Amino acid sequence: MKRVLVFEAHGDDMEFFAGGTIAKFCALGHEVTLVVATDNDKGSFELSAEELRAVRDKEINGAAAVLGIGRVIPLGYSDGDLAFQAAADRLRGQFMRIIREVKPDIVFTWDPFTPYEGHADHRAVAVAASEAASFSHFPLYYPEQLAEGLQPHYVSETWFFAKSPRDQNKFVDIDGYIEKKIEALYQHEAQMVLTIADMQHHLRASGLDVPWLAQLDPHDYQEAIARRMKQGARAVAQRAGLQCEYAEGFRRTRYGGIESLARDQQIAEDV
Ligand SMILES: [Zn+2]
What we know:
Blueprint: E1 3-8, H1 13-27, E2 31-38, H2 49-67, E3 71-77, H3 82-85, H4 88-102, E4 106-109, H5 120-135, H6 143-147, E5 157-161, E6 170-173, H7 178-187, H8 189-206, H9 211-214, H10 222-239, E7 247-254
The chain binds zinc ion.
Residues 9-10, 13, 119, 122 line the site of zinc ion.
């Protein structure tokens, strides 16, 4: 059994990029903990920030239950303002404390090295989480945590969400888990309504004609979300030359690249 720790900026980040893989880890008996940095409290054209915060727990816990995640840790920063509310060293220390408490073998998070990432919260989580995972076994980082009784902890693998096929070096067959990924996304109702409504803003401004999108009530998001998720996962499987129908792709680093020193040996795969 491995322990897996996910750091995401917003409830729904992990579901979009790794929902099938996380469902698979859970189904295989691994223990998954989810850290959600913000409240999603700017993510709507129709709800107030207070209303969004009120539905946050229901949505993230609902999605976690669908995927089989055992524990959710919401940090409660304001959507879009993470980097302003938490200085980089403070957020890194907060993440390192969680790593030293949860003791994960594998960390999932945003990629600090991906270009063109437009969301400041994704960038902030990416830097803080990847540095925390890289250095949590160094005892001189945040020594006050050790003085409180926590121990240094070594993270074996980091799996980065990978928007671009160029970055993907690890693929997971999610046949049998794509429906759980989609069902978990449906639990994030406010964010799914937002996703469709935002696409409609782009469509209207562009002057382009996509009748099914223009006519869609954003609250009837289910079929559009399912179709896009299946198209995307099918494309990943095809590009990777896998036999399965659906896959997710990641940029993974593990054991500091030590495998290159043992060319005749291989590390077993968990999923
Ligand atoms: Zn996000």
